[in-house]
Amino acid sequence: MTDKKRIFATSRIGDPAENRLRERGYELEVFHGPEAPPKKLIIEKVKSGIDALITTLRDPIDAEIFEAGKNSLKVVAQIAVGFDNINRADANKYKVPFANTADVLTEATAEFAFLMLGMLARKMYASERLVRDQKWPSWHPFLPFLGDEVTGKTIAIIGTGRIGLAMIKKCSGFDMNMLCYDPAYHNDKYIASIQELMDLRHANGIQKEKTWIKYVEFEEALSGADYVSIHVPLLREGETDKPTYHLINEKTLKLMKPTAYLVNTSRGPVVDEKALAKALKDKVITGAALDVFEKEPLP
């Protein structure tokens, strides 16, 4: 078959997907290493005339890649929801479309954010270390750690896209009040539906206290919350009029309650890690849980 389309994948994508591509007549080459392929190798593959490139967040896809595939590369398909590694301006310049796997981890990410929130509230990390190191002295009603409930607390949901809305759904089941902020779009219909459900739960005696949810400005969300959960995309200066790079920084951390906790499951560079480390050391906030980091893997 002389016109067989060629694909290079920078990592395994699973037997079912790989088999399906081959069964449909594509010539698929896969980089099998657990580590990311060197950029030089990706350039070589693109220069060799591949039609499509399957990538992960580990692969820098920019003008150098698009230039190498100037006469042959037709599409870049990313195995991830995010695509921070793809230079969108370069892709547009070379007119190469790129796709992502949107919505595949919506519930999973929201679940993990909520689980981390619970771990912070109940001081699970410090408690687990104490038990593991065999330093648990004796039972005491509140020493050495006294956790807290999330029920009835106030959470700030920063970003109300798919994952933010999934997080809202989970928080509503724990009778939490919610301060929502999104710089781009307010999903007022969804928020109204959640409020209606919470009112119904209260009216039928399912929850003791009346709870609320509303959109507010960023500063109000930070200052009024017991927990702050980040669910925004990474947008840098020049890409938008409301960038999210280092959205959480020394200044914004000081807006939070000294008893508050921060949870980030969005993108590492949304949080200024040096500022966060200083805020924790100086007890500006009580704690934080990070699923993502500014540099991955950690140096």
What is the structure about, briefly put?
The protein contains eleven helices and eleven strands. The protein is an alpha/beta fold and 299 residues long.
CATH topology of the largest domain: Rossmann fold
**Which descriptor suits the 3D outline?**
elongated
Give the CATH H-level superfamily of the largest domain.
NAD(P)-binding Rossmann-like Domain
CATH architecture of the largest domain: 3-Layer(aba) Sandwich
The fraction of residues assigned to DSSP E strands is 5-15%
What class would the helix/strand composition place it in?
alpha/beta
| Distinct helical segment count | 11
List low-pLDDT spans. Answer: none
- How many domains in all? 2
- Average pLDDT value? 95
| CA(first)-CA(last) distance | 46 Å
Radius of gyration: 23 Å
- Range of helix content: 25-40%
Largest sheet: 6 strands, parallel
Record field, number of beta strands: 11
General description of the model:
This protein folds into two domains: 94 residues, Rossmann fold, CATH 3.40.50; 185 residues, Rossmann fold, CATH 3.40.50.720. It contains eleven helices and eleven strands. Strand 1, helix 1 and strand 2 form a beta-alpha-beta unit. Helix 5 packs across helix 7. It starts with 5 loop residues before the first strand and ends in a 9-residue tail after the last strand.
Primary descriptors:
single chain; 299 residues; alpha/beta; Rossmann fold; 2 domains; 6-stranded parallel sheet; 5-stranded parallel sheet; 34% helix
Write the layout of secondary structure elements.
Blueprint: E1 6-9, H1 15-23, E2 27-30, H2 39-47, E3 52-55, H3 63-68, E4 75-78, H4 88-93, E5 98-99, H5 106-121, H6 124-132, E6 154-158, H7 162-172, E7 177-181, H8 188-203, E8 213-215, H9 218-224, E9 227-230, H10 250-253, E10 261-264, H11 273-281, E11 287-290
Parallel strand pairs: 1-2, 1-3, 3-4, 4-5, 6-7, 6-9, 7-8, 9-10, 10-11
Helix pairs in contact: 5-7
